[in-house]
Structures are given as C-alpha cells and as structure tokens.
C-alpha cells in the first residue's frame, strides 16, 4: 500500500512534469528563437550601415577629394622649380665673346626652421653634442673650405647668427660644389641662378655694359640676369630669353635634396639671342691701351676715340680712357659707367672747319688753289677773332686756310657761304641730331636754333665754338667726306642670332648724300695738306699724324672750354681733337680723337696727331691696307 501509494505519487508527479514541460518548452522555445533572430538582424543591420558609411567615404575620397589629396601627397614629395633662361652672349665681329653666362647656385638658410629643428633634436636626444651652434660652426667651416674665393668662415658665422628668420649665405657657387654642401648639410637651401662673365674685364665695357641677377620683380619666374647699363641694358629683351618651369622629386620630402632623373619639364626655358657687334675686340683693346697711355702723357682729364669703317659706318672701336671692370664691383661708379664717346658732347674747335670747307667748294665760292687775303684779325659784331699765331695780312690758298687752320680765313669764307647755307650744311653732316648708333644715352649735341643767333654767333660756329658734338658725330662728318659725300648712319650692332641659329641682320643704316662725290674728293684732297711736312709757312698743323707710305687726310682742332669758375671761355682749358682718313686716296677707316683738357704745354697735349699716327699704323698692319700708289703732293699754303 505504501509502495503502491508511492508509485502513484511518482506517476502523478511524472505526469504533472510532462504536462509542464510540453507546454512550457514550446513557449520557451518560441521565445528563445525569436531573440536570437533579433540579435542576428541587429548585427546584420549594423554591418550594412558600416559598409554603407565606408562606401560613401570611399566614394568621397576617390571621387571628390582625390585631386586635393593627390596634390597634397604630390607636394610632400615633389617641388616645382623655375628654370632660368640662358642669357645670350655678346660677341665681336669675329665671334669672340665679350659677355656670356654660366650656371651657378646660391645657398640660403631658413634660420627659424633650423633653430626649431635643432631644439627639438636636442630635447629628443639629451646629452647630444649636435645642436644649432655645432651645426652652424661645422657648416661655416665647410663652406669656406669649399669656396675660399667667395667667402670666409667668419662671414658665414656672422650670416648664420643673424637675427632674421632667413639669410642668403653665398652666391655664384658652382653647381657640383653646391650639391656637395647641401648633401652634407640638408638644412641648407639652394637656388638655381646664373652669373655673367666678362672675359676681357675692362675691354669694351662702356659699350657692352653690365648685367646681374635681378630679384626686384614680384614674379619669381622673372628673377634672372638682366641688363643694367650699356648694350646689356638696351638689348635686354633680346638677350634675356624666357624662363621655364620643371617638377622634381625630393628625397623624403626634403626640398633641398632632388632625386636625379626625376625632372619633368612643364615649360622649357627659351634661351636668349646672341648679339653680334661690329667691334674688333683686338683693335678695341689696342685703342683703349693707346688712348689711356696718351691721356696720361698729355696730363689730360680724359679722352675718347672712335674708329669707323669709311664705307659702311660700322664702328670697329669705341674707346674711353675712363672705364670699369664689370667683374669688379668696386669699379661700378657712375662716372666710370658713362659711355662718353656717345653721351658727352663738347665744343670741337677747328675740326669743325670741314663744314665751311665743304660748303665753299660745293657752292663754287672757292677752289683748292684760289686765294684768300687773310689779315691777322677779323671783327664779327662786338667780337674780334684772331689766328693762333700773330701775322699781318697774308695770301692763303683755300687749301692753306684749312691746312694752317686760320680762324680769320675760315670766317671770311663762311661769310661768303652765308649763314643759312652754312646751317643747312651743318645739319646735313648730322650735327645737332642723334646718329642712331644703337647705344643708350646718346646725345644729339647742340646747335643753336637759327632764330636764336646773335650778331656774333656766326663768328663762333664756323670755327667750332658755340656748338657741340660727340666723338662719334665728329667722326661721322669725316666718314661722309671719305665716302664720296654719302653719310652713313654709324652702327655698333651687326646682327642678332636667334636660339635656333637664325641670323637676323640689323636694319640697313640710314644714309644721306651730303655733297657730290666730286666735292667730297676735292675736300679730302685738300685736307691732305694738314699733315704736310714742308718748310714754313707751308707746313700743315699736324705733320706728326702722317704715316709713311700712306696718304692721310685730317684736321686738327682746339676748342676752348668754359671755365667753371668764371663761366667764360678759358685761356688754358681746351678740347684737343683730330679727325683723320686712312688712306686718303682709297679710304678704309676714319679715326676721331678727343683729349679733354690736356696740358697744352706738353708735346702730347698740344696735338692729338701723334696718337692718330700710332692708331693708323696699327690699323694698316692689322688689316693689310695697301700702301698708296704715290705720296701726297706738297702744295703751297701761303703765297709770298
């Protein structure tokens, strides 16, 4: 009973458990599966959201931000560099270089960045001896050792300790040397530049001028060699060329270290054109040397000279005893940079008498052998004009008036020519007008306007006072006489050679027929008597200018200068001039010379004839000029 009751209780219990488990298990199972599915769904939704966000970001990066990010990355490893254009050379008529360019480097430092990087390094490496001070001392010593001709260790230390945030260290460093310095000290920056070389130093420097590296333009791409004075300045557009640009890869983003072979040219630099001159550099050197020596011998303030082709007007030499050395900054003084043969007019004196001689012959007023009664003085308005020597009334031939340089005889002939005809001839010779030689700063000289003439003006002009001209203008008058009356515009630039090798000649020079060929030849023959060496009174004013074997025509001049103290004509200060033609019977060259206030008591200061003789001798040898077929005839100048 007990057992049966127990069994019934067990069964009852078992039966009750089964009933609970069946109902409950189904409900629990249902609830449990639903929760798991919910968790899976949430995870799936989260994953989808994340993928969508990532996709959107990817699209944003790849499509919308790609150019910006790419440019930023590119900037971290590339650098855009301006490529200076190669400046054209200036060469003489035979191709000898008077000016050319070489590539250089300039070193600089960002001192603020260097201080910061060294401070950070010192903090990160306690106890290190590498700091700003040790670095700059090592760099200063190293740079001075590598370029001892450009700087010193002390100079570099001073620059590296400047209070500014940036400083240039040294210019004109050879590219390979600069690369070595930057490799040793990566914090040093390097800039591509160029330097102008003048192999002749002072040779033709007043003509060629000077170019240097200019950084005054706000456009960095235009920082380049640019002309300052002379042809370097006036022909700067032709010489300069057009700069270019390139991209290079940098090492670890360091703009100072370029990776070789990574250069990519964005815009190629276009070189400048070469400028060919009419100058003969050897002749130019010789004329500069002889002129400087003669100025010293005559104790003159200065002197200028020009040699011109008698037919073409091409200038073979143009010299000033005062010049500068473009390779030496200490000589770059304003008074030395001046190109006086074209910029500085002066009163020429009797060398201007060729105008009266030409007008008298051309108008038929006189012939070489016709005579003029010449007293010792002549009165023009309120002025009394006399000759350089005392004499009574004498009978001069027309040739003698100019060979002896008689002021009185010249004024007598000028009065017969007339003021208007004289002024017209003066203009035909180009006086009072720029020659157009092609050099900057040219002066036109001065001729008073006709309506401004006083009663005594015509007592001055025919003898070369009261008007002014440059050495080039003076030589130009005699070029017309040498060239059968045809005056040719003088020029000093012959052609321009483009980067592609094309040669572009300068425009043809302007010409003007001053007088007929016969008149020019007659005057040229008359002026041979100037160098005539005969017994007094038939000696010319410059026998010392004669050159054995050659007929020489020429004219001396002594033009009074204004005394700066009294503002009146000085009795001791003068312009001593000479213009000559070599040879007179077949003209090849014209030479013009001016001495500024020499000591006229000295043999060299009394006349420029000896200097002409020396220059003419060199010309005859250098250019193998054939000797004249016969010597100049000795002609009477003053008749008994």
From TrEMBL:
<dbReference type="Pfam" id="PF03717">
    <property type="entry name" value="PBP_dimer"/>
</dbReference>
<feature type="domain" description="Penicillin-binding protein dimerisation">
    <location>
        <begin position="83"/>
        <end position="255"/>
    </location>
</feature>
<dbReference type="InterPro" id="IPR050515">
    <property type="entry name" value="Beta-lactam/transpept"/>
</dbReference>
<dbReference type="Pfam" id="PF00905">
    <property type="entry name" value="Transpeptidase"/>
</dbReference>
<dbReference type="InterPro" id="IPR005311">
    <property type="entry name" value="PBP_dimer"/>
</dbReference>
<keyword id="KW-0812">Transmembrane</keyword>
<dbReference type="InterPro" id="IPR036138">
    <property type="entry name" value="PBP_dimer_sf"/>
</dbReference>
<comment type="similarity">
    <text>Belongs to the transpeptidase family.</text>
</comment>
<feature type="region of interest" description="Disordered">
    <location>
        <begin position="496"/>
        <end position="519"/>
    </location>
</feature>
<protein>
    <submittedName>
        <fullName>Penicillin-binding protein 2</fullName>
    </submittedName>
</protein>
<feature type="domain" description="Penicillin-binding protein transpeptidase">
    <location>
        <begin position="304"/>
        <end position="615"/>
    </location>
</feature>
<dbReference type="InterPro" id="IPR001460">
    <property type="entry name" value="PCN-bd_Tpept"/>
</dbReference>
<dbReference type="InterPro" id="IPR012338">
    <property type="entry name" value="Beta-lactam/transpept-like"/>
</dbReference>
<keyword id="KW-0472">Membrane</keyword>
<keyword id="KW-1133">Transmembrane helix</keyword>
<feature type="transmembrane region" description="Helical">
    <location>
        <begin position="40"/>
        <end position="59"/>
    </location>
</feature>
